[in-house]
Protein 1
Amino acid sequence: MKEKKMSDVQRLKQDYPWIQTPLVVGAPMRLIALADLAVEVSKAGGIGFIGAGTDTSSLSTYFQHAQRLLGASALATKNGTMPIGVGFINWGADIDVAVSLIQKYRPAAVWFFAPSSTASLMQWTEKSREACPETKVWVQVGSVQEAMGAVRETKPDVLVVQGTDAGGHGLAQGAGLISLVPEVCDAVETYFSRDGGAGGERPVIIAAGGIAEQRSAAAAMTLGASGVVLGTRLLASYEANISKGYRDEVLRASDGGQTTVRTKVYDTLRNTNWAATHNARGVINKTYFDAMDGMGEEENRRLYTEETNKGDAGWGVENRMTTYAGSAVGLVKEVKGAGEIVREMRGQIGGVLDRAKAIL
Amino acid sequence: MKEKKMSDVQRLKQDYPWIQTPLVVGAPMRLIALADLAVEVSKAGGIGFIGAGTDTSSLSTYFQHAQRLLGASALATKNGTMPIGVGFINWGADIDVAVSLIQKYRPAAVWFFAPSSTASLMQWTEKSREACPETKVWVQVGSVQEAMGAVRETKPDVLVVQGTDAGGHGLAQGAGLISLVPEVCDAVETYFSRDGGAGGERPVIIAAGGIAEQRSAAAAMTLGASGVVLGTRLLASYEANISKGYRDEVLRASDGGQTTVRTKVYDTLRNTNWAATHNARGVINKTYFDAMDGMGEEENRRLYTEETNKGDAGWGVENRMTTYAGSAVGLVKEVKGAGEIVREMRGQIGGVLDRAKAIL
């Protein structure tokens, strides 16, 4: 057990030589995590991801911006890769554009999520590896079944295990990290130790969903993860590409299990075309209340569209703009620099484990 | 922080002198956790609870049975209390019967859950403390709001913080322990350090929901809990009062986020009278599929009632008997003695924390 974990850390440091451990990753939040946020996370010793999501139209610009920001930083990289990653929502992203940009900009990692099929995930993986063999493949999963499907079919370098407390999109049906991470770890362990893993290398497991600070990060490590992903926490960073109204709502909301909900409602009115298998967690607002009270989709969509003209005033419980956020939103109370968030959290994880040990 | 935790452990050892730490608690699973299970958990250095739930009709018998089982065990107790607890689902339990039995049998703890109102919870608490001042009051909550309401109004000795991965009943809307425990800890901390706690004593915080083994137990400690509750894991103990069909289904189910679901469906067909605020997590079966496919309540109830005659063959995905279980069900693969489960888990928590520390 310990040997396996040690080698996971060694692999991480080998593949992403600029990082410090425990590894903190910046989630590829769609069109919110752009070059500024990704670079700041990496400069702080984490791995920052640009969130292209379904939209590759401006990705080239984001990569160029990241190159400029990274210019003077002298982060140690491997084989000339760019020391950030990029995330795609596979079902909606243009594979040809994505692959050509992977080839051109050589990000250290790609993060795949929600492919339309296993065949599609295999295609993305193969094409990405062809385009830039040094770019590591991260695959986000939300169940044991998804995890083992991804492991068997694509041999990912990293499995991002997302629990149902995550903000934004994920499996509609799921479990929290507390039970999901150990079960995925055991399934992966069994596959590689008993079945040999079909010649592939065991993926590093990284946890996402509900982790906003050092206690939850430490918990994820005890559950079996070798690193953690921050999403909601980074919404309240200076570098996030986010409206003030959205950010203020993240700061305001507390008791996240009660004030956020996983639902299709916000997708529906935004016409996002997500499959029935997925929904998204966001702060409950008027759109959601109206939908629960039986308002029809069209009327709700019309009211939402009107609200988009209200600017920052469109966010809040009594308003309609969508605030995707995880159930840890109540632990986010202050806007800080992304680098400070990453460094502070990383520096406190050891102390949390020590205190837990001390009270046994 | 460390001092507070040290004193929580000291308080636990003072109030329940037979325990060993880290504290492992056996959940008061309604009519499944009876004297055999409760006593076995306590004998292993945990705190076992009898699950009276809504039904106090045989509780006297259970207490008597527990007395016999405890007779030769010589567990160190405090002021002659019985070294087990008893759990009530307050909205449905008879307060007069409950209080008279608390007075007579003096359990070390009572566990309150789902009162019909704050006033009712206050009444239960006051009457229980009057009947037996040595009996500690545990209150189960599922949100920050519930937690602070309970703390302010009833000054519980223990707050049991239940995450949404829990099996059986809980708040219909909730968060996993990964975000819920830290937020509750912070709210309690603020109330007592900044606001003085209105003269009350800070409750010990214990985590429930999705914890089936040492990794999740260690995670709960890092999140801020001073002890953990086992529910689903103990369904697969020799001492659980459970049908073979139910237990086999717990052993069979895996990938708990996918194969269990929080729903009102199982309550509806069993006419349990639970309020809309609560639902329950159970393994998905034919009842649930039919309900999702639009089958009416009456027909579904009729088919369920028929199935109750099938005995153990009534459980399983293609059948209709309800298998309440948490999302950690996939980590439960073997029937063991409850004492062995508790001792094994407790003995491994320190090692889990050490390994997490070693890979930083």
Note: The longest strand of chain A covers residues 82-89.
Protein 2
Amino acid sequence: MTSVAAQHLPFDLDDPYRSLSLNTATTKRWTLAEAVDGAARAGLGAIGLWRDRVDEIGADTAAKIVRDAGLRVSSLCRGGFLTQPDDRQTALDDNRRAIDDAATLGTQELVMVVGGMPDRKLAAARARVDERLAQLAPYAAERGIRLALEPLHPMFCADRAVISTLAQALTMAQPYPAETVGVVVDTFHIWWDPALEAQIAEAGAAGRISSYQVCDWLNPMTADPLLSRGMMGDGVIDFTTIGRWVRAAGYRGDVEVEIFNADIWAGDGREVIETMKQRYRDLVLPALVG
Amino acid sequence: MTSVAAQHLPFDLDDPYRSLSLNTATTKRWTLAEAVDGAARAGLGAIGLWRDRVDEIGADTAAKIVRDAGLRVSSLCRGGFLTQPDDRQTALDDNRRAIDDAATLGTQELVMVVGGMPDRKLAAARARVDERLAQLAPYAAERGIRLALEPLHPMFCADRAVISTLAQALTMAQPYPAETVGVVVDTFHIWWDPALEAQIAEAGAAGRISSYQVCDWLNPMTADPLLSRGMMGDGVIDFTTIGRWVRAAGYRGDVEVEIFNADIWAGDGREVIETMKQRYRDLVLPALVG
């Protein structure tokens, strides 16, 4: 089969799963080959890859597996770790490897989880992200890869990512061409933002929406906030409203489902995908169909 | 002794605890009389009261206890619960009682925790806050009480408060005079906000900062996010930077310490206050002294 990477088809209710992408974090126990097989058998159009599963077999082999299955790679996750004061070179080297891997895998989008706070100086940590983004952007641009800045929920500001809102990600992206630095719209992280509609519109107008990722916010939260994500429909997020904003912003790319959830991880991967398809069709897709 | 409510003294390094206020939630096991006694013996200038401890003895008795101890009441916590579609009258009645109690207690500031989402319709829940604020504001204004809108951390948007940023609180406050609707600057809830400096400046310029509340963000978080607050210095918040912004915004009121933390609750109240004083003097006060 030929590569279908970067072919973004219009959303279509008659072919609802062409734009649906399984992120390998959702079926965490599966190897890359198993996840690709599961996604392809389920009729999905794409897969989002985490580097741990890519590294197990190497990017070349991973790319061949995906290509042979006829899937797109909607994104590679993740670059980042840009906030530490001391290991600048290590971080830059690792990100360049991630950029190379993204190119090998045939995806344009490298999701960037930029890192938390090494100390109490939040502004300084954020400034380091700006600096290191400037050091990475030329390398990414030469290889046709977009650094997709992911705002993480503010509860992860200290330990995982000092980018906390879509507005902030857009400000950080602004110095660069839209094809070099983008932003991730992940419902779990930004659904609460009172200014979200305007931010999604701005991201779309700038051509910077790298990925639309969906999962739900469970209420009450789980004891580990990292695992408090749920299948669409199991929490409080209104995918119709946010989906309309994403649609109105012009996004026509894949929709990735990335769920960190101990119960889902313990379940059967094929059943998880079937539930995901049903929820996507019922709750997410209608708002995205023009 | 005469009431010293609403006398806001300048911050003073030589009399460092005149503007320090013990919120009764910090010494959760203490009755109101015990907390007042503890605060007064420790030389604090004020106390922040939760309604549960006021209700146990009634507002008149509570007011007398505080007055006799020579303390100010920096705020009453809390009104709110404005987001439910069905119990509008109950909520309004309860808030009017809270306004009356605030007036009896001699504080101007009634902290409003507006409530979470009864369903998936976030915008509708926020609109109900606007509507019910309009219904409460005249009653508050007549009694000289300010409704102090508290943005809660976005991780509480679903279950506790649909006001998630200071910017949003200011927008909600905007239709009302500054003496009728204000905002709470609580470090735990808003420290992560990339736009915080401008928002604090705006709140100050509008004369709307009802309260500056300090406690730290623990990293890693505790299993119950509600209890993930820590004593200043035990987490990641930079009180110097935020304190300078609060100072520059013109705030000269009391500084409340409100910590929900199981370990602190289990400790001896007098020791908690001594630690609080030391951390306040070392980490919080210097930035507030002009």
Note: The two ends of chain A are 29 Å apart (CA to CA).
Protein 3
Amino acid sequence: MEGVDHLAHERSKAQFDVDQMKVVWVGSRHALQVSDRIARLVASDPVLRKDNRTMMTRKELFKNTLRKAAHGWKRINELRLSEEEASWFRHYVDQPAYTDLHWGMFVPFIKGSGTEEQQKKWLPLAYKMQIIGCYAQTELGHGSNVQGLETTATFDPKTDEFVLNSPTLTSSKWWPGGLGKAATHAVAFARLITDGKDHGVNGFIVQLRSLDDHLPLPGITVGDIGMKFGNGAYNSMDNGVLRFDNVRIPRDQMLMRVAQVTREGKYVQSNVPRQLLYGTMVFVRQTIVSDASTALSRAVCIATRYSAVRRQFGSENGGVETQVIDYKTQQSRLFPLLASAYAFRFVGEWLKWLYTDVTQKLQANDFATLPEAHACTAGLKSLTTSATADAIEECRKLCGGHGYLTNSGLPELFAVYVPACTYEGDNVVLLLQVARFLMKTVSQLPSGKKPVGTTSYMGRAEHLIQCRCNVQKVEDWLKPSVILEAFEARAIRMSIACAQDLSKFSNQEEGL
Amino acid sequence: MEGVDHLAHERSKAQFDVDQMKVVWVGSRHALQVSDRIARLVASDPVLRKDNRTMMTRKELFKNTLRKAAHGWKRINELRLSEEEASWFRHYVDQPAYTDLHWGMFVPFIKGSGTEEQQKKWLPLAYKMQIIGCYAQTELGHGSNVQGLETTATFDPKTDEFVLNSPTLTSSKWWPGGLGKAATHAVAFARLITDGKDHGVNGFIVQLRSLDDHLPLPGITVGDIGMKFGNGAYNSMDNGVLRFDNVRIPRDQMLMRVAQVTREGKYVQSNVPRQLLYGTMVFVRQTIVSDASTALSRAVCIATRYSAVRRQFGSENGGVETQVIDYKTQQSRLFPLLASAYAFRFVGEWLKWLYTDVTQKLQANDFATLPEAHACTAGLKSLTTSATADAIEECRKLCGGHGYLTNSGLPELFAVYVPACTYEGDNVVLLLQVARFLMKTVSQLPSGKKPVGTTSYMGRAEHLIQCRCNVQKVEDWLKPSVILEAFEARAIRMSIACAQDLSKFSNQEEGL
């Protein structure tokens, strides 16, 4: 059996056009070509090697991140890669780094929440990486409840400055990637206080470290929060802790697109609707859903290949044993995960459409579909990331003992993926948001208000409650319309039953 | 809030005698006292510190293991600890080490499978640790299917020796703990071949490394198989790979309690029944179930304390937020795991009784209850280890982002625990064994054969199939007899339905 290509036979049995499927998977023939070309570029670059990551100490690993980030930046510029190519490049470097937050949170947030003037000042510095930004929102004691943040930014009219303070241990910023070692600047979130009045949480651009010697500026206490799950995984990231002790910043470093503080210290809402910020959230969650399908497809790919190669039991008369992929116990665990990887890819594409749709409507000041779009992205973020994390672990177990070696790729894939269940909205909290939206939709049905988008089936509640499944034979389940109606009937029945249960509480939140 | 003991208030509300519960948990007041005393001994010993394990390189970590093992051995002897005390000592050192296999597999296997003469020769050497043993069964290509092992031990009557060979890559021994670096000897499993005839798998004592310079002996290729899941976790263990190239051992190093090879090369079964070996399996699995409750209780303890201290949302008028333990969404995930930790503890105690019972019956040549006991331990091993692994990960998620830091203890607890789902019988394979036993039991019901032990309820199949649950009010569910009968009714109905489904296949194994 040695030296045999155990997979060639399996591959030869494919009943679909593999090349065509690749195009469907990536999105277009053009995208496939770019992706392939950049994948080869990254794979052949010795600086971007990944094979020894699990053996490095934390310090070596972080140095490796710095080296890769600097090298990647250099290559992207040398080769004059387009934004599409650069994005594939970063995708294939595939190592969490402070640059993820710089490009993925710091820059977009300034774009979304900064005035034109602020964008003109800060974005060129960020684009050239003359400053490195992070996104300092979460505090040690405050994660999901952003409105409960404790850090304060108090306006001092004497000097036209804000004074930032973290008065307690629980008010320490905790987790921001890039904060621990790399960032020179942060978008920091703090309660805005003017003239003794608390205006709630706002974002501020704060310089953390000197651009000369990279040392923390006066009043700034900053550091790395330590080791995280897995050998390599997110340990390449410098998640950090930050405390402010009377740190002063000029007034124009408050991000002022939706609200301003005037020279006199007056708090003024602008005429830019706050809902515009939801557009960004839909965008970020769409990326998370797409990333789920990528992570899941890698895990499923490893487990499927292993299942084809691995043989165990079933040998007759001393012949070869049965491939484990031929056992129903293996198939019933593996194949639904394979199907989910495709499903998440296609729902990710659909979310791209939803983002475009939401953006267009917001620009036309039409906010009617926003709650549904918001619930939809919250639900899909939660569903796809939880399912993917569990599925990676299941794929690991499907490889038996071999899945426990980091060489299988699966332990690291799990450890680096699983925070997706927590960041950008804890999955349980997000599901509660979806539940609240569904309960509200149900409560509005009697008034005749038409549910929109993915909940439009709820408008057919009366039919769905009464209808019976008219499946006669097994093949009927292959009709998507039959499955869809079954899910719709189940969803509306469960929603209405839940609403009835909750109506027994004087306060709906008591049911949580 | 800083400096406040956030847990004191919660603890003051306990509605049971905490001290009494500790006794119930550990088993007796005596055991609690010993356990407490040894826990303090280990915790105060600077050599046995655990706080920096996740920061060490693999090499540092393995040196740390060697240091702890040598130090532990020295302390156990210096303090003249009893076997009970020494066992608690090793429990609290709590770092996977080659000694686990030496004491837990090598020594017991020689006891169980060696003749009196062999025990007299090898056990004193092992007890004094003049030799270090490992248990070399699993091969790269052969895990669950032990009968499929490829390594051969061919008797050479000319020299009165066995010749060991690993003819292929897949026949390499792969995984044995202690093999990679530490072991001088192995109990190695190989197909016994005499006069061209294959007698199946037997155990052999093989020296691997020189007792002078610890270098591998001629014909032995041996090494470590690399990094495993987690930062520290099982990376303190030297899981190894081993190949034999015409390695010769004297005939008397075949473990000969149940079968012998004579000087002439004749294969002879002894009059010791093979079933006796099952006693050891029941013993090992009983330990695994007890260990499950220990691992789970640690995780639940961390998550419960966190849930009491952590506050999020629900603040009214700027007051403190709600403790997350007061949310039903947290309770419904956490409390069943807490209950499981207790349930697994008690079922572990029951398995100790089962082991005693099986042992007594085996000694009286009574094998009637063995299949049921075997199915029972297989099912409980699978159930408790899968539930515990999933529960540790759930506890990690219940601590939100903080569970992702190794400082929470949970990532390491998961990574070090999860192999329990694979070793000593893969959980899916074990469940199939339970299923086969249940199907056999169902098939024998019409013949009037009385099911024994935990399956005796199946003898009441007719009643259970017809009976209706007579619960009238919610409180009725607090009666254990009601719950028990409900489970019995459900189990027998599902077993019979499954047997009927399987009867449609010409070969029952096709249903797998």
Note: Residues 328-363 of chain A form the longest helix (36 residues).
Protein 4
Amino acid sequence: MNIGLDMMGGDYAPLEAVKGVHQYLSASAQPATLFCIGDEQQVQPLLIEHNIPANTIRLIHAPEVIGYHEHPTKALKEKQQSSIAIGFHLLASGKIDAFLSAGNTGAMLVGTMYTIKAIEGVLRPTISTIVPKLNGATGLLLDVGLNADCKPEQLNQFAVLGSLYAQYVLGVDSPKVGLLNVGEEEGKGNLLAQSTYPLLKENATINFVGNVEGRDVFKDKADVMVCDGFTGNVVLKMAESFYDIAVNRQLDNDEYLHRFHYENYGGTPVLGVAKPVIIGHGISNAAAFKNMILVAEKMLQTNFCGIIKHAFMQAV
Amino acid sequence: MNIGLDMMGGDYAPLEAVKGVHQYLSASAQPATLFCIGDEQQVQPLLIEHNIPANTIRLIHAPEVIGYHEHPTKALKEKQQSSIAIGFHLLASGKIDAFLSAGNTGAMLVGTMYTIKAIEGVLRPTISTIVPKLNGATGLLLDVGLNADCKPEQLNQFAVLGSLYAQYVLGVDSPKVGLLNVGEEEGKGNLLAQSTYPLLKENATINFVGNVEGRDVFKDKADVMVCDGFTGNVVLKMAESFYDIAVNRQLDNDEYLHRFHYENYGGTPVLGVAKPVIIGHGISNAAAFKNMILVAEKMLQTNFCGIIKHAFMQAV
């Protein structure tokens, strides 16, 4: 199992990426082979400093870095020697089985779409966010920004992708799927929600429980919550800001609020593409990098992309 | 100034409505004349019990009540002697100048649309919610559910309605108007946001400051935040649930979080209709009722509906 990690992505890279690698290797009995992609001159001394023997990882030199504010398509094209471009090259050629980065999100998405491509039958890949539930469980909300405008058929597919992810990667048995909406009853909502409801209701491959409202997001009503990427992105960023407010007001000692800390989740996989690609938060720290690696490992162990391929072969 | 109050609406009516009337009358030097609409047999003894002399208010008998789960249009038609139906009748005939209720929201909206009607030029009336800002200021988000699907022209009008409300009723000087979106730059967003941005940018009657994201909702970036009613409703209910979570986790002693308590705002006016109609929260307590009356008073004192009429006469 070969996992590629962009050592240069994120505000605190490469230091926190190196620390994350160290945490992962220390905690794992049979670690995957990590392909650490980044500027040798910067990464090598940090590996030594953090007691990561050269033979426990593969250091892949990438002299260039794509910055946060660079135009994704342009940067990927022009910076072929960047850690992100090299990562996708290795992933496409099969030298690595999964690729993760906390770098330029747009470049990661463009790289995924053009290099790895959607699984046959998937109309649009999607990105999700983990939602800490009040009962201690872990929920999933999708789409959170990749698809600002959606069709009902896409939301129906997000439900399948999210449901399988919750089941196989998050370990939720028979995940309850809810449609994020403005009321409880069937028939409520905007045109998209109204047209999506019957599709979800008739979809025999998911456990659809009906509509969920904004007030149910953190409750037990549904494990997987489906919405268009506009609504989901607003919800995600609002939840993040609540956590930031709690931290600023020193309320984050609260056990529940603390679960909102992004580092616990590490990153979001792009669901519906042929190989695991995980996009991390720009402020990723060591724990976040470690958890990103663990998510990739889990996706590979469960053959998650194979499961998705199989599900979509039967036509959704 | 005659303000009509539905004494029977809300989970704790008529008791909390009576207490709210008492609070209002005690605190006001020159109170408006309150038309208290409700079941005499229930309301009269409570008025006596709370030392509200008969001559300080007008008690209007309404033998029927529209329940929470009744179908709005059907109930309004069949229960002509309900407090809500009588309230709209008094408002339409000019016997009262404003009407407020914490009762069946749907019935209040139907009553408003069919009895009071939209101001000429207003495509669709809208409802908003107050947003407590971290800097102590008061923001406004609209639409929060009356219009699940919107056109760019409607969002442009919500911007004007919200801006005037913030200025005249909330007392915000030259309110900054933001478009709720998924990114900062112009061109970001779903088709609705992309098409709305240029309209807001060219609208000389508002102080447009660009896009705001989910993470900016509680920040100082914009005083008035505009979105479709689907997104706004999800945001509103999520914010309410955060407050509930804080209360349950005993974090609501926090000064900022406490400002989320609905009672501080009392209710939401229907913006864009010819007369002030205010819809309260179902769980309204005395303070909420008092604040609803104060909002109505402020709207009448500032001739808010006249200001809207004038603004829309000049074509938005």
Note: DSSP finds eleven helices and eleven strands in chain A.
